[in-house]
Write a structure and sequence with these properties.
The protein is α+β, with helices and mostly antiparallel strands and 242 residues long. It contains 12 helices and 11 strands. The model has no long low-confidence stretch (mean pLDDT 87).
């Protein structure tokens, strides 16, 4: 009987193997990480970013779209791709956080690479929420003020719900997405706030001009008005994330 049971294969095995194979190629991994900025990229932009020929990149994108990791649309002669949804972003970020620190901290070769890495570590978008030291600082501030609980998984408290409402940050449009979720930060190795609340907070600070994107990267920086507002609202010192 046990011998018969041992030959019964989990029906999810083939799908899991195929999914892992999609992400096992370095060029495809580069594309998935770039698309964590939450924006749509053209195939040409991704090809230049990955340092491969357009024809090569097109083959990789085709596999990612067919595998359900990317969504695509065409506008004129341009082909745009983005991560399929927040679920894919969570998967990519969680896997990136598992990369051994020795690999993640490999020596930088140029001043430009060093500056880019430092900017990403200070603050960045993780699909649609904030990450890096800025994301951790905001998460810690919400927690220390009793607005967010981390002891039994991430959850907004009643005071937290009232705080978002008073700050004019609507927590809507989440569907089946959790209100608050922990996302393991791949540079800080600690969880930051994701979910509907994390996305709403990120959208608010960008729309209000409290943070701004640095060029076309995922990195963000706090503006002078953001320094004042975040200090008033949450007691966050920008110097602590610099």
């Amino acid at each position: 009987m046990l011998g018969d049971m041992s030959r019964i294969r989990d029906p999810r095995a083939a799908g899991l193997s195929a999914l892992a194979g999609l992400m096992a190629d370095e060029t495809r991994a580069v594309c998935l990480l770039a698309l964590l900025d939450g924006r749509a990229w053209t195939a040409g932009e991704l090809a230049r970013h990955a340092g491969v020929a357009a024809s090569t990149l097109s083959e990789h994108l085709g596999k990612l779209v067919a595998g359900g990791l990317l969504a695509q649309e065409r506008q004129g002669r341009h082909r745009y791709v983005r991560l399929a949804d927040a679920r894919v972003a969570t998967l990519v970020e969680d896997l990136a956080a598992q990369v051994p620190e020795a690999v993640d901290r490999r020596p930088v070769r140029t001043l430009r690479e060093s500056s880019a890495r430092s900017a990403m570590a200070r603050g960045r978008t993780c699909y649609d929420h904030l990450a890096g030291r800025l994301g951790i600082a905001l998460t810690d501030a919400l927690t220390s003020r009793g607005l967010l609980r981390q002891d039994t998984g991430f959850a907004l408290t009643e005071a937290g719900l009232a705080w978002f409402d008073a700050a004019g940050i609507p927590l809507t449009g989440g569907g089946r997405r959790p209100l608050a979720r922990a996302c393991l930060d791949w540079t800080e190795r600690r969880p930051h706030l994701a979910g509907v609340a994390g996305a709403a907070l990120c959208r608010h600070v960008l729309e209000e001009g409290w943070c701004e994107r640095i060029g076309s990267s995922r990195a963000v920086r706090v503006t002078p008005s953001g320094e004042r507002e975040l200090s008033v609202l949450l007691g966050v010192s920008v110097g602590a994330v610099g």
